[in-house]
Write a structure and sequence with these properties.
The protein is α+β, with helices and mostly antiparallel strands. It is built from 13 helices and 8 strands. It has a 4-stranded antiparallel β-sheet. A two-stranded antiparallel ribbon has the order 1-2.
Length: 434
Amino acid sequence: MIAKDGGRAARVLAAGLTLAGIAVAAPAHAQQARARAAAPAQAGKAAVGQADATPIVTQTRLPVNPTDAIAIVNDQVITRSDLADECVARKGKEILETLINRVLIEQALKAQKKEVTAAEIDKEIDAVAARFGISRQQWLRTLDKERAISPFQYARDVIYPQIAMRKLCEGRVQVTDKDVEQAFEAHYGDKIRCRLIMVDTLAKAQTVWEELKKNPGGFEKLAQEQSMDLATRSLGGLLGEPINRHAQPTNVSDSAFAQLVDGDPNDKDPSHKPKDGDFTGPIQASEGAWLILRREGIVPAETRVSAKDENVRKRLHEYVHEAKLKDEMGVVFEELIQKAAIQNMLVGTEKLANEQQHPEYRLDDQVKLMSNPESNTPDVGPDGAAPVAGAAPKLPTPAAVDPAAAAEFEKARAAKAPAPAAGAAVAPTPGAPQ
């Protein structure tokens, strides 16, 4: 619901949803018209033998007072306060986190004398729909049907914070020539097809490595027995997509290319060059993740695209800027939380201004592997290509939503979704510009 203070931001959001509301309301109006047209015939039937039919309860207004009846069961009243208490008990923590984060963003905008307008919200919704190659109305209906997110919720909880965080990051993101060159190498350079074994300690990684040195052909069996990466373990560690240069985390991709593609630059003996079947030493991906990669093959570099093509460089520049902006948005939001004084009476936590963050307020910092991070935005590459036909679009996670709440939402959505085909667990690499 819009805050009762009727603040400017709330009015902006309400105004920004005018077109969205029309898009969703149109089918309802048509249905009502058909119902009115059929009313005389139905009335005639009711007069014959249905005089004592159960009357239909008509909702005239939404109960707003705590003691107002929200439902009546056999003369027993369920009040709005009863409903509110149940909602707080079940979902209060995550919804309150969303409200806290939204207030932080609104306060930061006000401090910088910035605002998000209704026109900007409408334009962004149109742009997202266009990236999927569908109309605004189709996109909003898809969200409502497949994600149970109304146009109002989408504008308020997704689009508004997204635009607001971009404004708060203005002037903080720079794209260098080196960034563009690395992006070109990532999209058009050599890529490695690999198998993976992931374990949680260096000691385990060294033990696996020693076994592989004795029996290099046993990699797939060891992956099935030892790897803790559920997405690849059943496939003998086979990654669904090749690894790009400079992919995140870069320490992993850099080590993979150094050991499996480039080799020792000072060693001129061609027989010493890396080849298919070679595997890396243990590589630390995070505090609790150690990897060993085996080279399955090389995807050759794309030679038909030039790094000097201005159109290609422009698209790569935009792509890198967007990636850096997303990272910076996380940094800025962490700063907002760090500086804020937050009392959460629901969970009994208190954080003083500029106090070290409580773990409950930290953003998700899970390591995303290689070239296939789980994206929070639609799978659209720098060329603006739409997602694969039939694939479920990925909704951007609101910047103001608690990561735990987002995870719960995705878990519930996944439970309703059809089971993926074998080998489809790894997200595809975003498309490259042409």
